[in-house]
Design brief:
Number of domains: 1
Structural class: mainly alpha
Number of helices: 2
């Protein structure tokens, strides 16, 4: 994921969190639960993006090591 895409996701998650705050105080338990689930999904997306970035870094290191050994 590019830095630009990651920044866009962070901005989106910030907007979701701001919009969710009043919904979490709703008297309707179904709305509160749905909002909590949305927030959990947003955090999951962010964590998956971080994992993808870390995996790309690790794969690049591994590929460089293999190239050095082969060459």
């Amino acid at each position: 994921m590019s830095k630009q895409a990651a920044a866009a996701l962070r901005k989106l998650f910030t907007r979701i969190a701001a919009a969710a705050a009043p919904l979490l105080r709703s008297p309707g338990p179904a709305l509160v639960t749905a909002t909590e689930e949305l927030m959990a999904a947003a955090r999951l997306e962010e964590k998956l993006a971080a994992f993808a970035r870390a995996e790309r870094v690790a794969a690049a290191r591994r590929d460089r090591r293999r190239a050095r050994r082969a060459g």
